[in-house]
Design a protein that fits this description.
Elements (H helix, E strand, L loop, with lengths): L1 H12 L2 H17 L20 H11 L9 H18 L7 H13 L4 H21 L6 H22 L1
Helix pairs in contact: 2-3, 3-4, 4-5, 4-6, 5-7
């Protein structure tokens, strides 16, 4: 019983990256389960691709940066966004796409400086992704891309709201 009471204290003493790593590892593990493959975020309607070495790299790029989401939120958002873009453009549609929302909430909550610049850069990167997906011939209307953008900005806004 005493050991159970000491666990929270031991956990809090660990470095923040060690405490954040299990979230990314859990998301990575869930994405590897066959039952969850091809059930992730679908933006742009790119045809599904089978899980291959490229998908493994994209999966790592989407999940593992969550370990630094509190220490370096801008870097985390940049890496997760890059992984998400590759996920959508290549047609893997991994459950790990959820990491984008986690990274956005964390960035809204933990980014100390250059918040507007980060928001503008993320928005510009999203426009580039939407144009690239449209050029692939996804057939999605512009309203789909706008709706997705509005939903992910809610994630950033939720993080900013938690900050206050």
């Amino acid at each position: 019983m005493i050991a159970l009471r000491r666990f929270p204290d031991l956990w809090r003493r660990l470095d923040v990256t060690v405490r954040d790593l299990p979230l990314g590892v859990l998301l990575l593990a869930v994405s590897l389960l066959p039952v969850f493959q091809r059930h992730g975020t679908r933006l742009g309607g790119v045809a599904d691709r089978p899980f291959d070495a490229g998908a493994a790299a994209v999966l790592a790029l989407e999940c593992l940066p969550l370990a630094v989401r509190r220490r370096w939120p801008a870097l985390c958002l940049a890496l997760v966004s890059l992984g998400f873009a590759a996920d959508q453009l290549r047609g893997y549609h991994l459950v790990a796409g959820t990491a984008l929302l986690i990274a956005l909430v964390s960035t809204g909550l933990h980014l100390e400086r250059h918040r507007r610049a980060a928001a503008l850069l993320f928005s510009a990167a999203y426009v580039v992704l939407a144009v690239a997906l449209a050029r692939l011939g996804s057939g999605e209307p512009v309203s789909e891309f706008v709706t997705f953008y509005l939903l992910v900005t809610i994630g950033w806004g939720a993080g900013a709201w938690l900050r206050t």
